[in-house]
Design brief:
The chain is α/β, with parallel strands linked by helices.
């Protein structure tokens, strides 16, 4: 309320900040109204306890009660205007949906500083904003307590006269609960059953005027309930709110608060704020507060038509926002954090866009002729917002694809390195003579490892990356083959060097043999011995052991060893003939000497024998 009490001034920045975190969630607004100095703030503080700790709130008797809504002993009003908790308390309803719960306190009615119209304005704002209006009364419900409720009869009548297709209710306000304090009547028990019995009896009357009032209350509120509470205790009644301990509160009152909390906040009882049968979100509540504050800003009692128009405007805004949110929520549920094929994303967009348009068209059916243009405007704005949202999703989807491709490329790079390592392992650091077998085995292993690595990614993207995978494997294989070929060339040089050394040794052995034919060595035996020793030298060498190319070089060696057989035979024969000729000449010389000696008579007797031995 404004300082002069003549109207409402909404602290919009604060309200927006409070509801920002729950702008797309349903809200439940529990408001308490009633005459001043009758314990409204105190009961709200205990309900706040209950919301935070359920029935454990009174387990510690030595703790002070919360004083969130300031309360104190005295005759002067403590609460000014309407106050609301600055943070939501999250509960779940019977459908297991999250609901943001807020408690709302209103200034006391019938304050000496307020006239009847100003008090009615406060109560109007409370009823319009709340999902459940608690009307706080002392000892019992009086006929006078119903009178200011009747002030809104015109509004209720006007609203009831509108064509509505909401399945939930045609009442302008939601639930009303009479909270009867300091109950002492013995004929009706102070419990849930007793409260139902009392309310039923009170709402029954034969007097026409009173009957009309009751009927008007039933048509104004979708549900009328009652709850009874005993006295809280002497200590509570004489202390300020920040001085009260749990131990000061009477046990029966504590039990009654627990029962009240269950009736308000149990899953099956929790009531979210609704407008035209549609659940209001946090942002929708802010819009309602703004609209109602604008209507009530001058402190004058609004016309029913003004409130209906404000309700309708807010309803269109909030319902459109909910449709947009449902589109976002449905798309998010399908897409989540994963990448989705662009054509599939487009299909989802078209499906949920069509559903959004159908939902929006439902509002046109219930609208008045003068509202159609505004609804069409909201429809066009919604289309723009959904198109922007879809474009943002496409952009995010492309970014997800890039992220996945980057991750898949890392898998490809790792696969290439692992493939090369597998080939190296198969080669044991040596020349790998047969590459195809190990290569095929390694490729099978690497492909399996690659698919395991990319299992969490979109398989269409994975398939797009298969050519890059194949190129990487081929590049790694080329790198291996290049180094392997170098090792093969080194091995080949080593084997050829071994063949060359062996051929050289064979040549030396043959040279020595053929040049000394007089030693009595037969050429065939010489050749076979030199050949066998040369082959043995090659076979005993470790160069190229186990390689097929070694056997090839061995065959080449044998061919090379046989190549010069005829040449060695000719040399052998040449040396052999030369030695025989020299022997004949020496024999002839010996013979001539022998004849000369015979003529002289000085020849030795054995000279002939020596000559014969020489020839032999």
């Amino acid at each position: 309320m404004s300082e002069n009490g003549k109207g409402f001034r909404l602290k919009l920045d604060i309200v927006q900040e409070i509801f920002q975190s729950v702008e797309n969630l349903p809200v439940a607004i529990i408001s308490v109204s009633g005459a001043l100095r009758e314990g409204k703030s105190f009961i709200l503080n205990l309900l706040f306890h209950y919301l935070l700790q359920q029935k454990k709130w009174h387990s510690n008797k030595n703790r002070k009660t919360y004083n969130v809504f300031k309360s104190r002993n005295g005759t002067e009003s403590e609460t000014i205007g309407i106050n609301i908790t600055d943070k939501p308390i999250m509960l779940r309803d019977e459908n297991d949906e999250k609901v943001a719960v807020f408690l709302m306190d209103t200034e006391g009615l019938f304050d000496k500083q307020r006239d009847a119209k100003e008090c009615s304005t406060v109560f109007a704002m409370s009823c319009l904003l709340s999902s459940l209006q608690i009307y706080n009364v002392l000892r019992q419900i009086q006929e006078s307590n119903l009178q200011h409720l009747q002030i809104f009869s015109n509004y209720a009548m006007a609203t009831a006269g509108k064509k509505r297709k909401s399945a939930s209710t045609s009442a302008p306000f939601q639930a009303l609960m009479f909270l009867v304090r300091d109950w002492t009547h013995r004929n009706i028990a102070c419990n849930t059953k007793g409260a139902e019995e009392y309310l039923g009896k009170f709402l029954e009357t034969d007097k026409a005027e009173n009957k009309a009032v009751r009927q008007q209350i039933r048509s104004s509120f979708s549900k009328v309930r009652c709850h009874l509470l005993p006295r809280p205790g002497d200590e509570v009644e004489i202390k300020d709110g920040d001085e009260i301990f749990v131990s000061d509160i009477a046990d029966k009152f504590v039990k009654g608060v627990d029962n009240l909390g269950e009736q308000l906040f149990a899953e099956e009882n929790l009531t979210a704020k609704k407008l035209n049968g549609i659940t209001v979100t946090g942002q929708g509540f802010v819009d309602l507060a703004v609209a109602y504050a604008a209507i009530l800003h001058d402190g004058k009692m609004p016309k029913a038509e003004s409130i209906l128009k404000a309700n309708r405007q807010v309803f269109v805004l909030d319902r459109t926002r909910q449709i947009e949110f449902e589109y976002h929520d449905s798309m998010k549920e399908k897409v989540a954090e994963k990448y989705i094929n662009p054509s599939k994303l487009e299909e989802l967009h078209k499906e949920y866009l069509q559903r959004a348009l159908q939902q929006h068209n439902e509002m046109v059916k219930d609208s008045e002729p003068d509202e159609k243009e505004r609804i069409e405007t909201s429809r066009q704005q919604m289309l723009i917002q959904l198109q922007i949202a879809f474009q943002a999703m496409q952009h995010d989807n492309d970014a997800k694809k890039k992220i996945q491709k980057t991750a898949i490329n890392r898998c490809i790079s790792a696969a290439g390195k692992l493939y090369k390592a597998q080939l190296k392992k198969a080669a044991h650091g040596l020349y790998l003579e047969e590459v195809s077998g190990p290569s095929k085995h390694a490729q099978q292993q690497i492909l399996e490892a690659f698919y395991n690595c990319t299992r969490e990614y979109d398989q269409e993207i994975v398939q797009e990356c298969i050519p890059a995978f194949n190129r990487t494997i081929m590049e790694r294989e080329k790198e291996f083959l290049k180094k392997n070929a170098q090792k093969g060339e080194n091995l080949e040089r080593s084997l050829k060097g071994l063949v060359s050394d062996t051929v050289e040794k064979y040549a030396k052995m043959m040279d020595q043999g053929v040049e000394k034919p007089g030693q009595g060595v037969a050429f065939k035996k010489l050749k076979e011995q030199a050949f066998a020793e040369s082959v043995l030298k090659f076979e005993q060498s470790d160069v190229g052991k186990g390689y097929k190319c070694r056997q090839t070089e061995l065959q080449n060696l044998k061919v090379k060893l046989r190549e010069n057989d005829n040449k060695y035979w000719e040399r052998f024969c040449m040396y052999q003939n030369t030695e025989l000729l020299n022997a004949v000449k020496e024999a002839e010389k010996l013979y001539k000497n022998y004849v000369t000696q015979l003529k002289r008579g000085s020849a030795a007797p054995c000279t002939y024998c020596e000559l014969v031995l020489f020839y032999s």
